[in-house]
Design a protein that fits this description.
Layout: E1 2-6, E2 14-19, H1 38-43, E3 47-50, H2 57-61, H3 67-70, H4 73-86, H5 98-123, H6 130-137, H7 144-155, E4 158-161, H8 162-165, H9 179-190, H10 194-203, H11 206-216, H12 220-231, H13 238-252, H14 256-262, E5 265-270, H15 280-286, E6 290-293
Parallel strand pairs: 2-5, 3-4, 3-5
Antiparallel strand pairs: 1-2, 1-6
């Protein structure tokens, strides 16, 4: 998962690290101590480069309207029941756009469902695997990327978000829908636990569990194999998968060389951005850098 970048006139090495985020990963930080040279690499740089430094989020997700203006009393009742359960808040205190709020609630539901699966896995085993127990102990709603970002901030590192450099934003809003339409769509998803069912179905895909296992085994070849299956499967949103992976890789590479020439950097992005002919490892090598695993 950890690669050293050198050569092509670099005064000091930079590092490329594949993080675990999304899917079933709610405890992946527990393996950081088992990655050779991780701390040494992280402490040797002066800059942290992630996918996003989140400074633009308020402008993207906040709205001026209130939910009382967008929804009926019956719909507000549905929304409040969901907000109280997952955010311990009510709609009169929430100013997040409906489409992004759906995503936030979805992450909370995913955390709960994965936690339940982990608990069941431990209860049903006659003999506990220490790795299973470690994973359960390290359950956290905070993604690995945020954990690393916080470490970098504490160290006083310069922080760069690659998506900010390329003006990329996840499609958290549908520009063709008004806020009222977004809110009504959100309520229809919340009703009858539709969102829970969608997330549960996604988590139960065999490839998703295989991806998690491959990460814990630090098997980048297997991760690439699984990734190919995901982005070539139209049922798993293959076109979107390719855009999120490769289009961003190509655009990130317009900035990464200059970033690592300016300062020794620790680049931490989702692990699926690393392997393959369009992955960052090969793209950096094509630019003339030496990229070697640690």
């Amino acid at each position: 998962m950890l690669w050293e970048i050198s050569g092509k006139g670099l005064d000091q090495s930079s590092y490329l690290f594949g993080t675990a985020h999304g899917g079933p990963f709610i405890a992946a930080t527990y393996i950081l101590d088992s990655i050779p040279c991780f701390e040494e690499a992280f402490l040797s740089v002066t800059r942290f480069v992630g996918e996003d430094h989140f400074s633009s989020y308020p402008d993207i997700v906040q709205m001026n309207s209130t939910y009382d203006e967008l929804l009926s009393k019956k719909e507000i009742s549905v929304l409040d029941s969901v907000l109280l359960k997952y955010l311990h808040a009510t709609s009169d205190n929430v100013k997040i756009k409906p489409s992004f709020l759906t995503r936030v609630i979805g992450e909370k539901i995913k955390y709960q469902l994965v936690q339940e699966r982990m608990s069941a896995k431990l209860i049903n085993k006659k003999y506990l695997d220490p790795a299973d127990f470690d994973e359960f102990v390290f359950i956290s709603e905070e993604p690995m990327d945020i954990t690393l970002l916080k470490r970098a901030v504490k160290k006083g590192y310069d922080i760069i978000g690659l998506d900010n450099r390329i003006n990329f934003q996840f499609d958290t809003t549908n520009d063709s829908l008004t806020l009222k339409q977004q809110a009504e769509q959100m309520i229809s998803i919340f009703e009858n636990n539709q969102l829970n069912d969608l997330i549960r179905a996604r988590l139960e895909l065999p490839l998703i569990d295989s991806l998690k296992d491959a990460y814990y085994e630090q098997d980048l070849d297997l991760i690439e194999h699984i990734s190919v299956k995901l982005y070539t499967d139209s049922l798993n949103y293959g076109n979107i998968e390719r855009e999120l992976l490769f289009e961003r890789n190509f655009k990130w590479m317009e900035h990464i060389p200059s970033i690592i020439h300016e300062q020794p950097s620790f680049i931490a992005v989702g692990v699926r951005h690393l392997p393959g002919e369009n992955g960052l490892i090969d793209l950096l090598r094509k630019e003339g850098f030496i990229v070697e695993p640690l």
